[in-house]
Structure formats: C-alpha cells, structure tokens
Write a structure and sequence with these properties.
Elements (H helix, E strand, L loop, with lengths): L6 H10 L6 E5 L1 H8 E2 L2 E2 L2 E4 L2 E5 L10 E5 L4
Parallel strand pairs: 1-5
Antiparallel strand pairs: 1-6, 2-3, 4-5
Amino acid sequence: MKKTIDLATIKNFILTNALSENVMLMLHPSNFEKLATTGKKKAKALCVSGINVIADDNNEISEGEIDVLEVKFN
C-alpha cells in the first residue's frame, strides 16, 4: 500500500524530527506533483513551516518516502 504524503504529513514529519531551516525535504516526483499542482499550475518547490520541499529528479527516493537533505551555507 502506497503512503499518501500531504501537507499534514510533512508538517508532522518536520515537528517529529525537530527539523530547522538548515535542511530541505525531497519527495518522489509523483508525491511532489500531487502536493504542488493546483489546477493547471505546477510549482517547482514548496515551503512548509520554513523548510523547502523539492522533487527528486534522480529517482533515488521511493514513493511515499521523505528524504532529508542538509543545506550547507558558506
């Protein structure tokens, strides 16, 4: 059974893992598309609770999975 990822799931994931602005979340393209598409418009990135959410363009993330990427600032 595939896990549905919605905004509530992402917010809960952020709170449960005490994530801050120094990370990004990456989703399987189909999960991201369901979140980012409204009507005919499709966003390239989302921001949820101050954390950017992007689609995995390299097909490394399984559907229903959320990956945490560290963002390094110079």
